[in-house]
Amino acid sequence: MGDLPGIVITGASGRMGQMLIRTVLESGKAKLVGAVERAGSPWVGRDVGEAMGGAALGVICTDDPLEAFAKAQAVIDFTAPAATVEFAALAAQARAVHVIGTTGLEAEHLAKIAAAAHHAVIVRAGNMSLGVNLLVKLTQKVAQALDADWDIEIIEAHHNRKVDAPSGTALMLGEAAAEGRGVALADVRDSGRDGITGARQRGDIGFSAIRGGDIVGEHDVLFASPGERIVLRHVATDRAIFARGALKAALWGQDKAPGAYDMLDVLGL
Ligand SMILES: NC(=O)c1ccc[n+]([C@@H]2O[C@H](COP(=O)([O-])OP(=O)(O)OC[C@H]3O[C@@H](n4cnc5c(N)ncnc54)[C@H](O)[C@@H]3O)[C@@H](O)[C@H]2O)c1
Ligand SMILES: O=C(O)C1=N[C@H](C(=O)O)CCC1
C-alpha cells in the first residue's frame, strides 16, 4: 500500500467527487491521501468516509489545496473553471499529475492551464470514458469521409444540475468533426438557435442541449444529407465510467514528461 500513488480528490462532495473517492478506494492501484472542498462546505473538517455515510477512512476533507497536494502524486479534479485554474498552478508547484475533468473552461482558463503544463503533467478531457473517446475518433473519420452536403449536428442531454452548455463532450465531438472536415470549429460553430435564425448555413456544425432529470450524459452526432442520415451515439448510464478513466489517466501520467495531454494519449487511440 505504501508504494501506491497517492491521490487527492478535489470537489470531494460533488457527484463526481464521491464517485472518484469510491473508485480510488476500490481500485487497489492507488491510495486516497486527501480530499479538498470549497471553503464553507459542510464537508470541510470531516472524515470523508463518514461524510459519505460509511466508516472513517482517516482522510479529513480540507479547504487548503496546497497542504493536500503536497502529499499527492496526482490530483483528480472535477470542480469548476476558476477552481481548476487555481489547482493547476498548485498541482504544478507540488509536481503532482493534474487530471482535469472540469468542463466549461474558456480561453482565459485554458491559457493558464497551458502555462502550468510547462512544469507538470496535465491530462484534460471533457469526457474521460473509453466509449466517448472512441466516438471522437469515429466522428473525425466519418466527417473526413463526407462532404458538406452532409449537415453535422451534435445533440447532447444531461441532468438538470449541469451548469455549462454545450457539454465538454459535445465540444470534443465538434472539434473532431471540424478536424475531419479540415476547418476550425470556431468558424463553423452554430449553438443556441432561437427565433428567426435563417436557413442553416452549409458547412456549419450545430449544437443542441437538453437538460432534464438525472440523465448522466447522452451524445448523438448526426450526419444528415438529402435522403439519408447517419447517427453515432454514446449513452452513459453510470458516472463510474468517467471516474475509471480519470484514475487511469492519473496512473498513466506518473512517468510522463511535463506537458498537456488528453484521454486519446492515455488510451493510445
Ligand atoms: N470529463 C468528464 O468525464 C466529466 C464527467 C462528469 C462531469 N464532468 C465535469 O465535472 C465538473 C463537476 O461535475 P459534478 O457533476 O461532479 O458537479 P458537482 O456540482 O456535483 O461537484 C462539483 C464540486 O466541486 C466543488 N468545488 C467548487 N469550487 C471549488 C473549490 N474552489 N475548491 C474545492 N471544491 C470546489 C463544489 O463544492 C462541488 O462539490 C463539471 O464541470 C462537469 O461538467 C466531467
Ligand atoms: O454531468 C456532467 O456535467 C457531465 N459533464 C461532462 C460534459 O460536459 O460533457 C461529461 C458528461 C457528464
UniProtKB/TrEMBL annotation:
Any single Gene Ontology cellular-component annotation: cytosol
Compartments, record wording: Cytoplasm
Keyword match Phosphoprotein: no
Stored InterPro entries: DapB_C, DapB_N, DapB_N_CS, DHDPR_bac, NAD(P)-bd_dom_sf
Alphabetical keyword list: Amino-acid biosynthesis, Cytoplasm, Diaminopimelate biosynthesis, Lysine biosynthesis, NAD, NADP, Oxidoreductase
Biological processes, Gene Ontology terms: diaminopimelate biosynthetic process; lysine biosynthetic process via diaminopimelate
Catalytic residues of the enzyme: H158 (proton donor/acceptor), K162 (proton donor)
Functional pathway: Amino-acid biosynthesis; L-lysine biosynthesis via DAP pathway; (S)-tetrahydrodipicolinate from L-aspartate: step 4/4
Binding locations of (S)-2,3,4,5-tetrahydrodipicolinate: H159, G168, T169
Positions bound to NADP(+): R38
Residue span, Dihydrodipicolinate reductase C-terminal domain: 131-267
Keyword NADP: yes
Domain Dihydrodipicolinate reductase N-terminal: 7-128
One Pfam family, short name: DapB_N
Record-listed E.C. numbers: 1.17.1.8
Reactions listed under catalytic activity: (S)-2,3,4,5-tetrahydrodipicolinate + NADP(+) + H2O = (2S,4S)-4-hydroxy-2,3,4,5-tetrahydrodipicolinate + NADPH + H(+); (S)-2,3,4,5-tetrahydrodipicolinate + NAD(+) + H2O = (2S,4S)-4-hydroxy-2,3,4,5-tetrahydrodipicolinate + NADH + H(+)
Gene Ontology MF terms: 4-hydroxy-tetrahydrodipicolinate reductase; NAD binding; NADP binding; oxidoreductase activity, acting on CH or CH2 groups, NAD or NADP as acceptor
Family of this protein: Belongs to the DapB family.
Stated role: Catalyzes the conversion of 4-hydroxy-tetrahydrodipicolinate (HTPA) to tetrahydrodipicolinate.
Name this polypeptide is given: 4-hydroxy-tetrahydrodipicolinate reductase
Species in which this protein is naturally found: Gemmobacter aquatilis
Gene, per the UniProt record: dapB
